[in-house]
Amino acid sequence: MDEVVVEVEKAKREWDDAYEKTIEHIMAIQDYGKSRRRGGEEKVSLQRLNGLAQDGLSLLNSLQFNLDLLAPQLPSVDQVQSSQSLLETWKNQYQSLRVNLRSANLQAKDNMRKAAQEERELLLGGGTESTDLRRKRQAKAGLTSDAESITESLRRSRQLMVQEVERSTNTLVAFDESTGVLKKAESEYKGHRSLLSRTRNLLSTMQRQDVIDRLILIIGFSLFVLAVVYVVSKRIGILRLQQMATAAIKARMAGKAANGDAMPLGQHFDGNTVPNVNIPQQQRRHDEL
C-alpha cells in the first residue's frame, strides 16, 4: 500500500509540471505572430508549439488514467475519496486546456493573418526595406521547412514512445490483476482440497459404520431366528409330552375299568379333570417351560 501512495504523489508532481508547461505552450501559441507584426522573427514555429501542447495533453491524459487505476488501491477510504475528487479536478482542467488550445490557435491564425497583411503592404511599397524583407522571408522559409520536418518526425517518435509506455503500463496492470486472481484461485483450491479430504474421511467412516450396522443387524436377526426356533421346538416338545401323558392316563384308566376296579365314593371323573399321575421331576420342568 505504501508503494501506491508514493505512486499517487509522484503522479501529482508530474501533473503540476506538465500542466504548467502546457499552459506556457498554449500562451506561446496565442502570442504567435505578434513578433512578425513588430518586425521580429518567431523562435519556434506554430506547428512545433502545437506539437508540444499536444504532447503535454497526452501526458496529462496518461496521468489521469494512472490515477484512476491507483485510487481504488489506496489503504483508507478518505484517501480514495480525495484521489477521486482530485481526478475530477484534473478532468476539468484537461478539458479547459483543450478549449484554451483551440482558442489560442484561432488567435495565432488571426495574428498571422494580420502580420501577412502588413508584410504584403510593405512588399508592395517597394524600396530597400522591401528587398531585405523578401530575402529574409525566403531564407526563413527554407529553415522553417527543415525545422518543421525534423520537429514533426521527433514529435511522432515521442508520441509512439508515449503510446508504448501506456501499453506497457496497461499490460503490467493486467498482469498484476491476473496474478491476484491466480493467488485467489490457489487459496480457494487449497480450501476445497482440505474440504474434499475431510469429506473423503467422513465417507470412509460412514461406510465402515454401515458395514458394522449391517453385521449387527444380521447377527441380531440370526439370534432372533434361533430364539424363535428354540421356543417353537420347546413348545412342540411340551405338547408331545402332554399328549403322551394324556394317552398314558387314559390307558391306565381303561385298564382299571377292565379289571373291575371301582372308583372311590365321592369322586366323579370328568373329562376336564386330570388325575394325579407320577411324572418325573425332569419332565415337570419341561412342562413348566
Automatic annotation (TrEMBL):
<keyword id="KW-1133">Transmembrane helix</keyword>
<protein>
    <recommendedName>
        <fullName>Sec20 C-terminal domain-containing protein</fullName>
    </recommendedName>
</protein>
<dbReference type="Pfam" id="PF03908">
    <property type="entry name" value="Sec20"/>
</dbReference>
<comment type="similarity">
    <text>Belongs to the SEC20 family.</text>
</comment>
<dbReference type="GO" id="GO:0031201">
    <property type="term" value="C:SNARE complex"/>
</dbReference>
<keyword id="KW-0813">Transport</keyword>
<dbReference type="GO" id="GO:0005789">
    <property type="term" value="C:endoplasmic reticulum membrane"/>
</dbReference>
<dbReference type="InterPro" id="IPR005606">
    <property type="entry name" value="Sec20"/>
</dbReference>
<keyword id="KW-0175">Coiled coil</keyword>
<dbReference type="GO" id="GO:0005484">
    <property type="term" value="F:SNAP receptor activity"/>
</dbReference>
<keyword id="KW-0931">ER-Golgi transport</keyword>
<feature type="compositionally biased region" description="Polar residues">
    <location>
        <begin position="273"/>
        <end position="282"/>
    </location>
</feature>
<dbReference type="InterPro" id="IPR056173">
    <property type="entry name" value="Sec20_C"/>
</dbReference>
<feature type="region of interest" description="Disordered">
    <location>
        <begin position="270"/>
        <end position="289"/>
    </location>
</feature>
<dbReference type="GO" id="GO:0006890">
    <property type="term" value="P:retrograde vesicle-mediated transport, Golgi to endoplasmic reticulum"/>
</dbReference>
<feature type="transmembrane region" description="Helical">
    <location>
        <begin position="215"/>
        <end position="233"/>
    </location>
</feature>
<keyword id="KW-0812">Transmembrane</keyword>
<keyword id="KW-0256">Endoplasmic reticulum</keyword>
<feature type="domain" description="Sec20 C-terminal">
    <location>
        <begin position="145"/>
        <end position="236"/>
    </location>
</feature>
<keyword id="KW-0472">Membrane</keyword>
<feature type="coiled-coil region">
    <location>
        <begin position="87"/>
        <end position="121"/>
    </location>
</feature>
